[in-house]
Amino acid sequence: YGGFQVASVMTTTGFVTADFDAWPALSKAILLVLMIVGGSAGSTAGGIKVVRLIALSKYVRRRAALTFNPKAVIPVKIGRNTLSEGILSGIIGMVVLYGLTIFVAFLLMSAVGLDHVTALSSVIASMGTVGPGLGLVGPATNYLAVPAFGRLVLILCMLVGRLELFTAFVIFSPSFWRWR
């Protein structure tokens, strides 16, 4: 059951074969983290994407190495490709924006009266377009327990998560609406 749920969560298919909300806390925490990770690059799965997290971890490792040897030239590579500073900057910005969006949406979901587990997991599941979360939105239940304003927040989270963050947030930029 665990392997199937991991595959289902990471590929954001929404399939459930077991009530993972009844599993031990560590198992639920792993599934929650995998909801954020998402699928592979180029897939339609939600989440941050594995390749971005690999690039981010290599960037962090490079920053740590530069602390001890500031003059070193350490390229960040994925496979044989060297990632430019612009690409790394975009990945860092996207991950930070993803985290901030989860944080703000979590606060809004907490404000409507949901417990912390339900509030956080519903936001993460919606941002990653996973389907079931934990707590009141677990695999054995649905999202009807979420108040109307909370469902609106989750709809926006799903939209932002599916369209990718920068694409979705660009509509809030005044320069997007200016005629050229």
For this entry, give a set of tags.
about 180 residues, mainly alpha, two-stranded antiparallel sheet, globular
Description:
The protein is mainly α. It has 8 helices and 2 strands. Strands 1-2 form a two-stranded antiparallel ribbon. Strand 1 and strand 2 form a beta hairpin. The radius of gyration is 18 Å and the shape is globular. The mean pLDDT is 90.
Quick take:
The chain has helices at 2-11, 25-37, 50-68, 85-111, 116-127, 148-163, 165-169, 174-177, and strands at residues 77-78, 81-82. The protein is an all-alpha fold.
Gyration radius over CA = 18 Å
Tell me the strand order in the biggest sheet.
Answer: 1-2
Order of helices and strands: HHHEEHHHHH
Q: What's the main sheet like? A: 2 strands, antiparallel
Which structural category fits the helices and strands?
A: mainly alpha
Mean pLDDT comes to 90
Distance from first to last alpha carbon: 54 Å
Give the % helix. 55-70%
Q: β content, as a range?
A: under 5%
The tally of beta strands, per DSSP, is 2
Topology of this structure?
Blueprint: H1 2-11, H2 25-37, H3 50-68, E1 77-78, E2 81-82, H4 85-111, H5 116-127, H6 148-163, H7 165-169, H8 174-177
Antiparallel strand pairs: 1-2
Helix pairs in contact: 1-2, 3-4, 4-5, 4-6, 5-6
